[in-house]
Design a protein that fits this description.
Order of helices and strands: HHHHH
Structural class: mainly alpha
Strand content: under 5%
Distance between the termini: 33 Å
Amino acid sequence: MAYLNSLNNYRNTGLLILRVGLGAMMIFHGYPKLTGGTEMWAGLGSSTQYVGIHFWPVMWGFLAAITETLGGFLILIGLAFRPAALFLMLNLVVAAATHLGKGDGLDGAAHAIELAFVFAGLIFVGPGKYSVDKK
């Protein structure tokens, strides 16, 4: 499999593909929540009860929606990448706790858990050289 070693030269391309795909999907999921208004935000924000937060559900719902939408955009372009990945990871931890708290089990929480691990890993890896943040 030595021929696959040449792919090491394209790590930044791989990060770009990962960033664009994840960012676009986070925007896709977050934008309807962001435009859903206070009723949507209250329902979304009530999920924080599963991590011990029982106040201001509208605010928490709005912050979750803005995190998914704006955070997804920041991941996509690679700007403020690590803070965006951190907030998205935290958002997904709450989502996983919500699924588990509602009795959905690991099957229901698996997607949120998987994405939380992806964003946790991306915090360490960074956005790659094809990003607005490139150094």
